[in-house]
Amino acid sequence: MTATTDTPRPRTILLVEDQARTRQWLSGILGKAFPDSQVTACGTLADAFGQLAAFRDEAEGPPPWLAVIDINLPDGSGIELVREIAACWPDTLPLVATMYDDDGHLMEAIAAGARGYLLKGDEADVLQGYLRRAAAGEPAMSPSIAHRILAHFRETAEQTVPASALRHQQPLSPRETDVLSLLGKGFTVAESAQRLGLSPQTVSTYVRTIYSKLSISNRAQATLEARRRGL
Amino acid sequence: MAGLLLMTLSVVTSCLGPHLGLTFAPDDQGRTPDIVAASSPAVPVPSRLQAVIGTDGQRVTVTKADLLEDPDYITTYPALDAFYERQTQLHRALSGTDVSLELVRPDGGVTRITLQPRTRTPGELPASFWVLGFTAMVALVIGAWVWSLRPGDMATRLFALAGLGLATSLFPIAVYGAREIALPGPLFATLLTVSITGAWLLGAGLISLFLVYPVRIAGNRAVAICFALCLAMPVLRLLQLPPSPLLLSQAAAVAALIALLTAIALQWRATRPDPRHRTIVRWFGVSVGLGCATFVAMVNLPLLLGLPMVLPQGYAVLAFLLIYAGAALGVARYRLFALDMAAFRILLLLGVGAMILCLDALLVYGLHMASGPSLGLAFLGGLLLYMPLRDLIGRRLMRRPAMDGSLLFRLVGQAAFDSATPQARWEALVRDLFDPLDITPLDTPPQAPRLREEGLVLELPPLAGTTALSLRHARGGRGLFGPADARLAREALALLEAAHARRSAYEQGVMSERLRIARDLHDDVGARLLSALHLAEDASRPALHAALDDIRAIVSGLGGEQKPFGRVIADLRHETARRLEALGVTLDWPSPGDAEAGITLSYRAYKNLSSAVREIMSNVMRHAEAGLVTVRIACAEGRIHATIRDDGRGSHARKDGGRQGNGIRNLAARMEALGGEFAMTFRPDGAEARFWFPLEAASDAPEQGVPGQAQPAIVPP
Known about the structure:
heterodimer, A: 231 residues, alpha/beta, Rossmann fold, Arc Repressor Mutant, subunit A, five-stranded parallel beta sheet, two-stranded antiparallel sheet, 7 strands, B: 717 residues, alpha+beta, Pdz3 Domain, Rhopdopsin 7-helix transmembrane proteins, six-stranded antiparallel beta sheet, 12% strand, rod-shaped
C-alpha cells in the first residue's frame, strides 16, 4: 500500500476539506506527519475529481499515495470519491476525515472502501500518530464502528443469498469477531492484543482484513441488489 | 303449517257441533249453572237447564259435570265412563232438527221450550277457545322457529317437541271446552287422551331440555328414561291402572313440575363457573319454571286438593305463554340457543305472513268481501304494517347501550392522544365500550373483529403498537357480544386507526424537524466550531472540544436515543484510551459486567457522565504526570458510581498548583445539582476522584451545557 520512498518526485497527498481553516490545519498536520510528501488540497468534490483525473495522464507524476477526504462536502458526499479511489486507484490509500466516530456516514465510507478515518476534533499530536499508523496499515476503529460492522456481518449471515453472490461474501473469522468485540468494548488495539494473547501487529492485520471484508461484502451486496432490481 | 291445519280442524269441529245459543254462568253454586243469556228469545233468563229431550223423545238429564269445561275433576273410572255415556246421549239428543229443553226458572217453575240447533261461525266460539288456540299456535310457531334455525341441536329439538306437546294438549281442550253441552263420548275420550299425551310430551320435553341445556347434566339415557316415564302416564291412564284418573293427572303433574324445577336448580349449580350459561339459566329457567308452576298452581293443585279454581283452564294456559315469551326474549337478549338477531327477522317475516292471512280471513268473513280483492288489500295492509312493526321490534329487542357518534369519537380521541402506552390506551377504550370482565392478549390475531364461542368472546385485531385482544363476558358479565358489538368495534378500530395515522404523521413531522435541527447543528455549527478549534489558542481549545462533545450529545438526545450503558462506557473508554495512549499512560479499566447489560442511559445521564469523565481525564493528563490511570464505573440501584485514580504527583501537584481549577469546581457543583456527590482526594502517590449521581433525577436537574470556562484545574507555578 505504501509507495516506495525512492521516487524522483515528491509523493503527493490529496486532501479534500471544504472548511478553509480546517483544511489549513489538516494540511499542516499532514506535512508534519509525512515531511517527504506534498499536499494537494481541494475544497469541493468536483475539484477533487478534477485533480484525480489530472494524475491519470501521469503528467502530474504518480497518483497520490494517500487521500484524506471529508465526508460532508458542499457539492456532494466524499464517499463518492472514496468509492472511485477504491475502485480505480489501487495505489492510493483513502482515509476519511470526520467530526465524530459514531457518525452513520463513517460506516458507509468504510463500506465504500475507506481504509481508515481521522477525527478532526483530535489534538494535533494525537492526529499525527493516527495518520502514521493508518499509513502503516494500522487503521483505527471506534467501538461504534466495531458494533456496526459486527451487526452488518450478523445480518449478512442471516440473509439467504444465492451461492453465486456468496462467492464474494467472506464471513468474519472467529478471531476477527473476537477482535471486533473487544474494540467494541472500547479497548485499544494494543489492549485487545494483550487480552487475546496476540501481537499488536497481528491484531492490526485483523482490523485491516475486517475493513476490506466489509467493503467486499458491501460491493457484493450492491451487485446483488442491482441484480435483484434487474439493473 | 301443521299448526294452522290443527287450528282449522279444531275450529271446524267446534263450529259443526250443535248449538243452541245458550250462555252459562260460571259455576259457583255446586249445581248446574244458570243460563244467563241466550240467542233465542224463547229462553227465559235466568233459568237452569234440567234436561234435554231429543227428536226421538228420549229425555236426558243434564248435570253440572256435563257443562264443565274439563272432565279432569272426575275421580273414578266408572264415573268417567258414565260421563262419556251421558255425553253421547246428550249429543244424540242435541243432534236432531228440533231439541226440547227443560228449563227451571229461579222461582222453581219448569218450562219446556223447543229450539233448532245450528252450526256456529268462528266468531261465535267462546273466548277461551281462542286463548287456547292462540297459546297452542305460539308454542308451535316458536318451537318450530327455534328448531328450524338449529335443526341438529338437541336442545332446540327438545324445545320444539315441548311446543308440539303443548299444542297437542291445548287443541283438544279447546275443542271439548268449546262444546256447548255435549260431544260424542268416544270423540271426547279420544280428545282427552290426546290432550293428556300432549301434556306429558310437554313435561318430558321441558324436563329433558334442562337435563341437556345449557350444560349437559345427564346423558341420553336419562333423557330417554324421562320420556319413557312421562309417556307411560297416558298409557297407564288408558289401561286404568292407577287408582284414580284424577290422582294420575294431577299428582303426576305436580311431580313432573318438581322434577322440572329440580333440573333447573341443577343447571343453576352446574353453570356456576360460566356466566354465559348462568345468564341462560337465570332467564330461560325462570320463565319456564314460572310458566309451568303458575299453571300447576292454578289448575292442577286446586283440582288435586279439591279447591275452587282461580281461573278457568282455558285462561290458565296463558301461563305457558310466559315460557315462549321468555324464550323469544332470551334469544334476543342472551342469544338463547345460540341464535342471534337474524332469527327475529325470520320470525317477523312469518308474523307478517300470518298477519296477511288473518287480514284476508277477516275481510272475507267479517266484511264478506270477494277473496281476490281482499287478498290484495290484506297484502297492502301487511306491507303497511310491516315497516313500523319491524322498526318497533328492532328497537325494542335489539336495544344496546346507546353509543352515538360523538361519544364514540370522544372516547376514541381520548384513546388516540392519551399519554399512556398504545396498549394501555386501547385496553381502556375497549373497557369503556364493552365493559368486559376479562381482557387477554391473543396469539392468532383475527383480520377483523369477530364473535367467538357464541358471543361469549369478542376478538379484536391488533392496532399499531398493540396486540390483538380477546374480550370475555360483555357488559360486566351480564350479556353476550352480538353483531352490533362487532360493528361498534370495527367503527372504533377505523376511527382509532385514522387518529393514529394523524398522530404518527404529526410525530413524524416533529421527528424530521428534530433531525433537521440535529443535522444542522452537527454539520454547520460543528464545522464552524472545528474551524475555530483549529485556529484557537491552547487555552480555549478545551472549551471548543467540550462544545463539540455537547453537540454530539445534543444530536443523539434530539434523536431520542437511549444508549445502552455498555456502549456509553465503551465510547468513553475508547476516547480515554486514545488520549492516554498518545501520552504513554496505561489504562486500567475493565469492561462492565453482564449485570449492567440491560441498563440504558438517557441522553442527560450519558452527557453528565461523559463530561465528568472528560473533565477529570483532562486534569489527570495535564497535571498528574501519571503512568497508570485506574477507572471503575458501575451502574447499580439507579445510580452511577465512578472512581478515577492516578499514580501521579497527587498532593505534590496540588501543593505546586495551590488551588482547585474551575473545571473541578464546576464538576462538584454539577453533581450536587444532580443530587449526587463529588469528592477529590490527593495523596503523595497520586490523586483520586470519586463521584456518583442518580440516573433518574437527572431529568429535573439544570441542563448543563459547556462546562463553564474550562481552565487548567491546577495552575502550574
